[in-house]
């Protein structure tokens, strides 16, 4: 029972992080009015947040290896609450952008710290499923932003909505201090303090492990489409280009969460039982994302509602699909550097997301603002990322097959994985 309590509090911290991450996405049009921001400037809000988030992943991973999950979750929650509180009362564009950067830093500390709890508290066979549950249940934060937060925003106003989110974050920080422990035996053994040169060498070593790179490109290719949709451009696209009401757009975002939950459980079970099929599952997700967007973008006018539902369901599978990248990292790295490996993998999807979101903001601005044609051109930039990551996944998978015989399995690979399992 204790392990589920620890994991549940960590999960709540991640849910609030996702809530904080997605609040600007559902309030984007309100933010544009409040801060008098153009589409390009508005995308900078989220892009800067993602730059900070992605850029902080390796330092956060190193700090996680050093200080453990509990300290990092508390620090992350505190930073995010401070950022949201600043946004609640600020009307200055530079201050608001700085607050989003602070939120991105806190967000960077949270997710990988929650993931780090799982191997310490659960058995090897439970880890893939619990990891998936962490990722998909965390998306309930998106439901909180799409429904109660959006309702507060429309009814009580900007400041009340953001103060409410701040208060929830503060409550979770207190719960984390009281209930989270790094391992069943207390704090995890920290990595000893080393110099900058040795730190960089360790990061390079982790990156050069084929499973780390395979995890990085897995995360990159599967996650960015749904992230760009839910974090920034989904609500404006559905309301301005597809002609849906704000309420219907929020409802469709909850469909995204439901799809992620059901697909995540399936992916967790399949990859846990058939780890040698993991990369095939990932490539299937990348291909399905590209296919459904091709269908929607080929239309000369707004898509029917049923097709938009299918679009959101299909791209939402990418969220749980990206979690497979962490499983690749875990099976190719020792536990003492798992925080660093997880941070590297987690950079993949968010680097792709920030590139796509910024490019979309520039394209929409150049095309004259929020219109059907502008969004049609903007979403097309996704194909570049899909092509790059599909090739990279195939290459890194092949390198894993060539080098697996040189790896000392006794140090850090799961004993039940054979060569065929790890190289596909």
Automatic annotation (TrEMBL):
It comes from Mycolicibacterium confluentis. Residues 6-401 form the Major facilitator superfamily (MFS) profile domain. GO terms for molecular function: transmembrane transporter activity. Signal peptide: none annotated. It is found in: Cell membrane. The keyword Magnesium does not apply. InterPro entries: MFS, MFS_dom, MFS_trans_sf, MFS_Transporters. This is MFS transporter. Coiled coil: none annotated. It holds the Pfam family MFS_1. Keywords: Cell membrane, Membrane, Transmembrane, Transmembrane helix, Transport. The keyword Membrane applies. GO terms for cellular component: plasma membrane. CDD domains: MFS. It is a multi-pass membrane protein.
């Amino acid at each position: 029972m204790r392990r589920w309590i620890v994991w549940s509090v960590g999960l709540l911290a991640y849910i609030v992080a996702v809530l904080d991450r997605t609040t600007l996405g559902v309030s984007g049009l309100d933010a544009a009015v409040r801060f008098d921001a153009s589409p390009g400037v508005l995308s900078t809000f989220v892009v800067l947040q993602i730059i900070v988030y992605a850029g902080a992943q390796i330092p956060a991973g190193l700090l996680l290896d050093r200080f453990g999950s509990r300290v990092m979750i508390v620090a992350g929650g505190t930073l995010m609450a401070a950022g949201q509180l600043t946004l609640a009362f600020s009307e200055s564009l530079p201050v608001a952008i700085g607050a989003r950067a602070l939120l991105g830093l806190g967000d960077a500390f949270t997710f990988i710290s929650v993931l780090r709890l799982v191997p310490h508290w659960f058995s090897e066979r439970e880890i893939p499923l619990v990891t998936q549950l962490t990722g998909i249940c965390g998306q309930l934060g998106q439901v909180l932003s799409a429904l109660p937060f959006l309702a507060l925003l429309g009814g009580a106003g900007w400041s009340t909505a953001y103060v409410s989110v701040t208060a929830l974050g503060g409550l979770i920080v207190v719960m984390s201090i009281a209930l989270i422990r790094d391992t069943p035996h207390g704090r995890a053994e920290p990595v000893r303090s080393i110099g900058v040169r040795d730190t960089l060498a360790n990061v390079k070593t982790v990156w050069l492990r084929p499973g780390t790179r395979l995890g990085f490109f897995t995360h990159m290719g599967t996650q960015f489409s749904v992230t760009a949709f839910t974090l920034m451009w989904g609500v404006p696209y559905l309301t301005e280009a597809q002609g849906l009401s704000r309420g219907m757009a929020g409802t469709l975002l909850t469909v995204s969460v439901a799809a992620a939950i059901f697909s995540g459980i399936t992916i967790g079970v399949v990859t846990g039982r058939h780890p040698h099929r993991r990369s095939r599952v990932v490539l299937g997700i990348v291909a399905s994302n590209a296919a459904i967007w091709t269908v929607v973008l080929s239309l000369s006018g707004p898509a029917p509602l049923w097709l938009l539902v299918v679009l959101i369901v299909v791209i939402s599978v990418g969220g749980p699909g990206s979690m497979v990248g962490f499983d690749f990292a875990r099976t190719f790295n020792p536990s003492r550097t798992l925080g660093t490996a997880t941070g590297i993998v987690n950079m993949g999807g968010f680097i792709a997301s920030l590139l796509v979101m910024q490019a979309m903001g520039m394209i929409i601005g150049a095309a004259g603002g929020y219109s059907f044609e502008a969004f049609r051109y903007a979403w097309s930039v996704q194909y570049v990322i899909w092509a790059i990551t599909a090739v990279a996944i195939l290459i890194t998978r092949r390198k894993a097959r060539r080098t697996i015989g040189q790896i000392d399995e006794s140090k850090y690979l799961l004993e039940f994985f054979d060569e065929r399992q790890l190289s596909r």
